[in-house]
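2024-03-11 09:14:02 DEBUG pipeline.ingest accepted 1 chain
2024-03-11 09:14:02 DEBUG pipeline.ingest length=269
2024-03-11 09:14:03 DEBUG pipeline.predict start
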Amino acid sequence: MQKVLTIAGSDSGGGAGIQADIKTCQALGVYSASVITALTAQNTREITAVAPVERAMIRAQLDAVFNDIHIDVVKTGMLANKGTIQLVVNRLRAYEVENLVVDPVITSTSGTVLLTEEGLDCLRTELLPLASVLTPNIDEAALLLGESPTFDIKWMKQAAKRLQRFGPQIVVVKGGHLEGSEAVDVVYDGTTFTMLQSSRIHTSSTHGTGCTFAAAVAASLAKGMVYKEALQTAKTFTHTAIAHAFPIGTGKGPLNHYAHMQTDNKGVR
């Protein structure tokens, strides 16, 4: 069985972070191990508290997993600060990890800052050079580049090209915040641009969308898909999970990670 390791924060509301990653991997038929970097007290409306995990414990988790389980793909999410990023980079190098999907979690859906300024700089210079795939949304891409975004395809292409210079093999700038009837993501592989397109779903159930997409990319790569197939699979999976989301909570609700397993010609069972 293919195996993904997710290194991310815990979401007590169950919609994002480690919880979203594990559900995504399970739904796609891939085993998921996990390393928790931070605890968050959150629901569909807000994050009320964040507690980074001590680095000794993060290292212990990483070593415990890598010393026993052969991991096919690693996916990172919330890393919180510079020290944690440096530790993760150290262990990824020590265990010669070749397949890494980086979801650059900088702020939450509700607007809470989840990565320090020092951490952001460290992410750029130390983690991105190891990435196979980088999956920022427009706002995250702008923060990584240190500039204000323009919400159009032209800027997304320029951003993807510039982000690729930090070292990731593939950059996906997600366009979920664009206006229009289509949700368009820009993919750059260092040579050519590709567009991932789906119809826009007008819903408030979008909590954990970025985590879900990146985890689906990791799971698909673990199953042996080439990157274009993996990205399209992740796009379709995430779109379906949004389209069939359940009404949970009173804010931005979570996705339905098992929707593609439940759908038939009549919709969700």
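2024-03-11 09:14:41 DEBUG pipeline.report The longest strand covers residues 31-42.
2024-03-11 09:14:41 DEBUG pipeline.predict end
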